[in-house]
């Protein structure tokens, strides 16, 4: 989950001769403050709400214990729609490709690392501690992880280390971290240019397709063939944002959509059957992935510039903390409201979402607002550089 403040792009220059345009391969012009992409903030929150709908009413598992029966019975019609909410993650990854390319353009590696770490870690650390503490309460019926596993969760490396996860959604953060590392090493470290970004997209796409065919765990771990086309598609859409006439950028977006929808269908489609909790049609999966690409494309092209509502900035700020806490703490609240207090299913669903948004605001206001800039500053300015800046 990432910030969406725009870094301006230089205007494409018309050249009278038909020779190759090398101006677009140069580094970016000096940055200046530019309007925020409010529509991107709104899309991020929409994706998070999709995931919440899936976790609360579109799947089985632990949420069944929270409701006291299958969500099929709680939401006889809506549960089949909620099942598509898991594709909010695919939309997140397209957005992330756009935003990471935008935020990494023209930044040194240290600044890029500081920005990403400061954005992810403060709310994540507090969410891990909070969920661990709540699950350790005697009144809560869900099993807490061991103290050792809870501690290693603070590193975000719990999944590759085989530790139990405190936050069910943290697997997506492990995917994001690997994307950040690839982009930092291949683009940010040598310096972002149009040509370098295009080569990165082309090479990663080809390598990810080869990894999918090879079925080699190490290649899957590094190249992430299931999710690579989504990140690459977002990067291509940022190139479109810089120059909508860039045919290479549009080619990247088109290939990424074609591969990305196939990977999503491969992972999430299954034949309909009486034992399946819900059924997602392949056409429905393709439609949601297409919506994610189309929505980010509309933002990249400026078609949603009219959605300049200030409350969308807050919506974007609440997305990440909401995403972190909504699943496991939602189980606890749904159980308390529906089973213990007898609140109807629809009202319980709405109250739980509202409560998680309120908790997200508290994390944003009292954790991210004070700690994020301090951590970013501490990581951006080494002690040696601060000493040299003193008179």
Report the portion of residues in β strands: under 5%
- What is the ordering of alpha helices and beta strands? HHHHHHHHHHHHHHHHH
The general outline is: globular
First-to-last CA distance = 39 Å
- Could you tell me the mean pLDDT? 89
Unreliable parts: 1-23, 26-33
Helix content: 55-70%
What value does the Rg take, in angstroms?
Answer: 22 Å
Largest sheet: none
Structural class: mainly alpha
Number of strands: 0
Instruction: Enumerate how many helices there are, as a single number.
Output: 17
Architecture overview:
The protein is built from 17 helices and no strands. By secondary structure, the protein is mainly α. It is globular, with a radius of gyration of 22 Å. The two termini are 39 Å apart. Residues 1-23 and 26-33 have low confidence and may be disordered.
Topology of helices and strands:
Blueprint: H1 38-57, H2 62-67, H3 71-74, H4 78-82, H5 88-104, H6 109-135, H7 147-152, H8 158-161, H9 170-188, H10 194-214, H11 217-223, H12 228-242, H13 247-268, H14 282-300, H15 311-340, H16 345-380, H17 383-389
Question: Which features characterize this protein?
Answer:
391 residues; mainly alpha; 17 helices; globular; disordered N terminus
Give a quick precis of the structure.
With 391 residues, this protein is an all-alpha fold. It is built from 17 helices and no strands.
